[in-house]
Design a protein that fits this description.
alpha+beta; seven-stranded mixed sheet; 7 strands; globular
């Protein structure tokens, strides 16, 4: 496995995100347009990709949320590579990059329907928090936070 840091202009990232968007549209149905407005790819400077030889298989990104906090976005792993720890590698690399950049917290949102994602975030030390920002009153969202300096 090879892990690289890049940005949202990377064609391999855009390829995986197109598959992610298809999956999310299937899951979210009529609500997809609400969520898609918060998942634009313009100017994301912090993208992590995982490769199996030359094939891109997993991705994730973060954006600055506030001076101390990043928001993890656009997590996706090719279906045939799920359950092998690829998303965990992405999260670890995103956290390392965020710490190097001076951040101490990470937050994220996912769908209550994505049970495997919820299990992953719990396993990686994220704790459930009240829904934030645009997800505040959204009953189909679940939000998490982790102190990436201490790991709690």
């Amino acid at each position: 496995m090879r892990i690289i840091r890049t940005d949202s202009d990377d064609p391999d990232f855009r390829y995986l995100v197109s598959m992610l968007d298809e999956k999310l549209e299937e899951i979210n149905g009529a609500d997809h347009s609400f969520y898609s407005q918060f998942n634009l790819l313009d100017k994301i400077r912090n993208v992590v990709l995982v490769y199996d030889h030359e094939k891109v298989i997993s991705c994730g990104a973060f954006k600055k949320f506030d001076e101390d906090t990043i928001e993890i976005k656009r997590m996706f792993t090719e279906p045939m590579y799920r359950g092998r720890g690829m998303a965990g590698l992405v999260i670890d690399e995103l956290e390392s990059w965020a710490k190097e950049s001076g951040y101490s917290k990470a937050i994220l949102e996912t769908s209550i329907k994505l049970e495997s994602s919820i299990k992953l975030y719990n396993k990686k030390g994220f704790s459930r928090i009240n829904n934030y920002g645009q997800y505040k009153d959204d009953l189909s969202s679940i939000c998490f936070m982790k102190n990436i300096r201490s790991g709690k």
